Amino acid sequence: MDFGTENQADRTNYGAAFRHPNAQSLVIAFSGVMIENVIKDVTPFLLMVVGETADSCINVKAESEEDFLRELNGDGRVEKAYLYHSLSVSHNGGVELMATLCDDFSKQNNQGVVFKGRFPKYDNEITIAAKYAKENGLEIGDEIEITANGTQETYLICGYTQISNNLGRDCLMTRRGYERMATLTDASYYINLTEETDIDTFNLEAEEKFDVKVNATVNIDTTIKATTDVYISLMTMIVTAVLALSAIIVVFVLYLLVRTMLNCKIHDYRIMKALGFTTGQLVLQTALSFMPEAILSVEVGLMISSFIINPLTALFLSGIGFVSCTFHVPVGFIVFAAIGLILFAFLTACLLSLRIRKITPKALFSGE
Q: For residue 357, which of 290, 280, 276 has the smallest C-alpha distance?
């Protein structure tokens, strides 16, 4: 009998019970993606959720558009200005969609809003939310009937978007496309300003210059920062809670495994102590016996998790209209976190194995 090692059947049983690191690997991948794409730099998440961003948004009355655009084009502080106006339209059957209009979608800052197909270019084209398309069996190339102001027109679906401004009931159209059905009474323009320009000052000057012709001004940058602060705080709490829960699970599983091993092999430990093995040697041996299975499980789990984390995130966010996620998977973080998980498991197993100190060879002589 080999007192220094476990038999293969026991190792297999303990290893099978320790396969929880596969779940822990998924937790590591999720935490890494959220830290990289939300907490550290919220831009990737922001572009997916919000869609389009700019510095300022100014809504003007339609009859004042020409004067307004003339002023913007002559203002050295303005890098780019383009129509980006949202309003409601109806799909046949009375389902309301949030339509976003643009005079030229190539001017958009976020060209990733459309993830399949392309933006509308002609007045008979429309891009619709992928979630809504899936729910209604709509494919790229199909025709869809849209109604606005009591007028119905037919449009060709040219792409899918997943902006979530209206929980997946969204569409994109050109201005000329919308004006086949109705005329705009007001128009919102997104404006990119030079870095040194104060957005609030710029908006205030626009209000004073155009007076009643300007319906509203919005500092998009400030609005988004306020929103993203909430997202970052919430995600930080979620990641912290998930990692803490994972640590608790690892400790609990190892507690059960070590306790079972010590109870089942107490006779062997007594013999090994009688043969001269020290407590430190037995503790180290016990902890190391879990490591091959733990390392293999974490490695395989991380490889799988790195590939499936984006689809799983998209599934998690499907309720607000997402069907595809392209978050950057931080390989460096995941590797270091995996090493940390393995070391944590090893140290935990060592601490839990300290019960070996109480095992003495005396019981061998009493026949226990």
A: 280
Q: Helices 291-316 and 21-34 meet at what angle, rounded to 10?
A: 50
Question: Which tokens hold the place of 24?
Answer: 């822990």
Contact in structure between 341 and 295 (CB atoms under 8 Å): no
CATH of domain 56-196: 2.40.40
Query: Do residues 25 and 298 touch, judged by C-beta distance below 8 A?
Result: yes
Query: 65 with 75: CB under 8 angstroms?
Result: no
Is beta strand 151-161 parallel, antiparallel or unpaired with respect to 125-129? parallel
Q: CB–CB of 157/128 below 8 Å?
A: yes
Reading the chain (368 residues) residue by residue, the pLDDT tens digits are: 344 444 444 444 444 444 444 677 888 888 899 998 888 888 888 877 778 889 999 999 999 899 899 989 888 999 999 999 999 999 987 689 999 999 999 999 988 889 899 999 999 999 999 889 988 899 999 999 999 998 999 999 999 998 777 778 899 999 999 999 999 999 999 999 999 999 999 999 989 888 778 899 999 989 888 888 888 898 899 999 988 988 898 889 888 888 888 888 888 888 887 888 888 888 898 888 888 888 888 888 888 888 888 888 888 877 777 777 888 889 888 888 888 888 998 999 999 888 888 877 776 666 55
Q: Measure the CA–CA gap between 351 and 273, rounded to whole angstroms.
A: 19
As a whole number of Å, the CA-based R_g of the chain is 31
**Do 84 and 156 touch, CB atoms closer than 8 A?**
no
- Rounded Cα–Cα distance for residues 348 and 327 (Å): 33
* E strand intervals along the chain: 56-61, 78-83, 85-91, 95-102, 114-117, 125-129, 143-148, 151-161, 170-174, 186-193, 214-219
**Rounded to whole angstroms, how far apart are CA atoms 138 and 168?**
14
Where are the domains positioned within the chain?
8-48+227-366, 56-196
User: What DSSP character marks residue 281?
Assistant: H
Structure tokens at 347: 């140290």
Could you tell me the maximum CA-CA distance found in the chain, to the nearest angstrom?
103
Whether the CB-CB separation of 361 and 273 falls below 8 Å is answered with yes
Whole-number Å distance between alpha carbons of 109 and 192: 9
Q: Residue 340: how many CB atoms within 10 A of its CB?
A: 11
pTM: 0.74
